[in-house]
Design goal:
The termini are far apart. This protein has a domain of about 30 residues. It is built from 3 helices and no strands. It is an all-alpha fold.
Amino acid sequence: MSILSLHHGDHGSAHGDTQSQHPVRDFAADWIEATPAAILLRPVGTFLTEWAKATPVAILFQSLHR
């Protein structure tokens, strides 16, 4: 399982059943979590955020904003 979690492991326990109320949604979420792209989303997002903060425009904006 990856670090991305779109749903909880207790698929149907909120309603008291043992079966999922949304099997298609659960299947899609499980499939997305298993893809390599989902594993890379958080590190790539973190990198892009830090990169954007380090650009000259962002540095200038931060210095003028203070």
